[in-house]
Amino acid sequence: MFAGDRDLQAAVADLAEMLPEALRPLAAVAYDYRWCWEPDAAALFGAIDASRWERCGANPRRFLSELGPAALRRSAADPALVARAGALARAVAAERDRPWRTADGTAAAPVAFCCAEFGVHGSLPVYSGGLGILAGDILKAASDLGVPMVGVGLLYRTGYFHQRIDASGMQHEYWLDTDPQRLPCVRVTGDDGRPLTVQVPVDDEQVSVQVWRADVGRVPLYLLDTDCDGNSPVGRWITGRLYESNRAIRLAQYAVLGVGGVRMLRALGIEPALYHLNEGHPALGLFELFAAERAAQAALDDDAVWARVRRRVVFTTHTPVPAGNETYTRDELLSMLGRYADTVPLSGGREAFLALGRIDPADAAQPSGMTALALRGSRQANAVSRRHGEVARAMWRPLYPGRAPEGVPITHVTNGVHLPTWLGAPLRALLDRHLGADWLRRAEHEQTWAPVAQIPPAELWAARCAAREALVGTIRERALAARLRRGDPLDYAAAAAGGFEPARLTIGFARRLATYKRLHLVGLLPERAIALLGAERGLQFVFAGKAHPDDRDGKDVVRRLFELKRAPAVGGRAAFIEDYDIPAAGQLVGGCDVWVNLPRPPLEASGTSGMKSVLGGGLQLSVLDGWWAEAYDGDNGWAVDGSVDADHAAQDRRDAVALFDLLEQQVLPMFHDRDADGVPLRWVAMMKRSLMTLAPRFSAARMVAEYADDIYRL
């Protein structure tokens, strides 16, 4: 059905040869990430060999190939386990055989979803945070819904950085090499059996790019890789590291993703019906589409050719923050991409190439940016929440002279999350009993969630307590290990194991540690924070997140937070979880009672971590920005004012006071207001309201259906 099928079938056959006959169905499962949203899959692999499964990073391809003979014999002789393996393999195979939504195209003409990162699963380390995890959720939902799609990204050989925090709270970064031969992906070959490659001119080199395929259910994800024989060391490094600090290398990455992505699909024989540029990183591919249209329509002028290109492209902008809308000087662009610019048949040559990325094309002194280029080259553009749409229209108004902000052609499709991936296990078991057969296939519809109102409060509270207890066990283990590793005093290290309580109100804050996310508000009123941690009927905090290696201010936020650890109550009631990634995110969003989000308005475009928290039965305490500005109804969580204020210091102080007022006066009293059976009825009522109003509206199924019906169709 898709390019690389032959390579995938060969890889599955090779893996199957290593397994006993009874376990061979798992070989096909290992090469299809559909397993990761099947409810029994991870438990099945863990039942085969829990220690090896953990050591392999929940990578089923590596896991099955590293199992020892004893484990294989024992598992193959276990009828119950073999039956589970067969059921899992049949479920995954059945999904691949379901029909596509014909209204959205065909597998021969899919949507090409192009993004710099994809967070499909922790075992495929080509993501950093929210943008990538959202992209992974989009591929998963497209597979579920049958929307014909292929993903286009980069295979980073060292991925994003890993994080360690020292005793002072300073972040340190390190990178680990990834061997793609041990990942659940295959290198795509041509008819001659040799690795298929395309060429991309970067700087003074013709860089060879090979292609890997990882399957996300029915959606193939094609990953471009420059670590090829024949490339220079610099050429091989282009796809070395996600969000590389070197600006020239980042430009080269964008050329490989955009230009190389279009060339790769052509070489694979895939002719997309539409290109979806997810953020500006792939925007250079527009020039490749222009060149193809020019070759086919030589008599047309540039404007007419661009009109034909725009019919095939849509664009999603994800942030108003400057770091997400990079611009480059003339010299930077021409140094890396001048040779490529000379191959693009634009009437104005290099000047036209540069002008298309400027706010004012006529101003040669302006830098060029990927977002401006993507907006100019797409027929439809969208933001990722209602409020972000308003912000984006005002922000990019200069690109559309003479238009009022409301006339700027940027709409919005509010983000959503993939329910089967992020639904907490205790809550999923409960909902499976109460929402009817096959309810997840109807989860984007509000009526599906109506039976939540009738769930006995004690049952819902029991599921919430089970999720919290599992998280507390994880916090104890990870925090203790981290404190011992960085040489903290033994009493402080031991406090992590003994201080966190399974029944205590647990507050989570886990985000990318950019300063506008405002984690520092938690420590702005240290006396109130410490009092809440030390109170008998108080709370416990769990934090996580990474600052970009070049973001000194973001790193300093964590360092200043660590200064509070000297207070006696802090050691056992507050923990920072290092190396935040997809597995850690699943545990945190599933286990916290309250998810706190404190962005500086209006810089939060969406904020999908809170949506995930809903699916664990968590409640939101968030600034009215991003998704929460359209989600909050007064009864499904708590809100902090989302007004814009130029006086950041005054705003921070005011919002910190609002945060602690809510915790002290509303959140804690509601949590501890119990009936005779120990159930907090008002709290459970808010949980029900949260699930019923938020889970269907902010699901990836709703989001992808909206893209398919409102954005992709002409």
Question: What does the secondary structure layout of this molecule look like, with pairings?
Answer:
Blueprint: H1 5-17, H2 25-30, H3 41-48, H4 50-55, H5 60-66, H6 69-76, H7 79-97, E1 111-114, H8 130-145, E2 149-154, E3 162-165, E4 171-174, E5 186-187, E6 197-202, E7 205-216, E8 219-225, H9 233-237, H10 247-267, E9 274-278, H11 285-296, H12 302-310, E10 313-316, E11 327-328, H13 330-343, H14 349-355, E12 368-369, H15 370-376, E13 380-383, H16 386-395, E14 410-412, H17 419-422, H18 425-434, H19 457-485, H20 490-499, E15 505-510, H21 526-534, E16 539-544, H22 552-562, E17 574-577, H23 582-591, E18 594-597, H24 608-614, E19 619-623, H25 628-631, E20 637-640, H26 648-672, H27 681-694, H28 700-712
Parallel strand pairs: 1-2, 1-9, 2-8, 9-10, 10-13, 13-14, 15-16, 15-18, 16-17, 18-19, 19-20
Antiparallel strand pairs: 3-4, 5-7, 6-7, 7-8, 11-12
Helix pairs in contact: 3-7, 8-28, 10-11, 10-13, 11-12, 13-14, 18-19, 19-20, 19-23, 23-24
Tell me the count of domains: 3
- How would you name the CATH homologous superfamily of the largest domain? Glycogen Phosphorylase B
Number of strands: 20
Helix content: 40-55%
Terminal residue distance: 25 Å
Name given to the CATH architecture of the largest domain? 3-Layer(aba) Sandwich
Low-confidence stretches: none
Supply the helix-strand structural class. Answer: alpha/beta
The largest sheet, given as strand count, sense and whether it forms a barrel, is: 10 strands, mixed
What is the CATH C-level name of the largest domain?
A: Alpha Beta
Question: How much strand?
Answer: 5-15%
Please tell me the overall pLDDT: 94
Specify Rg, calculated over alpha carbons: 25 Å
Could you tell me the CATH topology label of the largest domain. Rossmann fold
Contiguous helical run count: 28
Question: Which assembly state applies to the chains in this document?
Answer: single chain
Categorize the overall geometry.
globular
